[in-house]
Amino acid sequence: MNLDQILITAKVAENKEEAKTIIAENYIGTYASLEDWAKEYLHKNCSVPNFVKEFIDYTKFAKTAQNNGDILVLTEDNKVFVFSMY
User: How many CA atoms lie within 13 A of 19 on its CB side?
Assistant: First the structure.
């Protein structure tokens, strides 16, 4: 689901609670940076040996996920809000 779909769904939802549910289903989390999301994602979902972690470009991984449409990133007040696009 992309941002337009999220916003359209929220507008046409029967009520605020339904809209909140739809948005919440796609919400991954709030982070200090996109790099923080990437670190959390990789360490939760991949078996990354400790000796390899220092070589991972978390920023590049996060930007690739964003550019490929895997995640939607919104920023406000120095916070990064990440939503799944699936």
Answer: 12
Other Cβ atoms less than 10 A from the Cβ of 41: the count is: 19
CB 66, CB 59: distance < 8 Å: no
Note whether 4 and 20 are within 8 A (CB): no
Percentage helix, strand, coil for the chain under 3-state DSSP, each rounded to 5: 55, 20, 25
pLDDT(4) > 80: no
Q: Where are the domains of the chain?
A: 3-84
Strand partners, 73: 82
Counted residue by residue, the chain has a size of 86
pLDDT tens-place string over residues 23-39 = 788 899 999 999 999 99
User: Whole-number mean pLDDT of the chain?
Assistant: 84
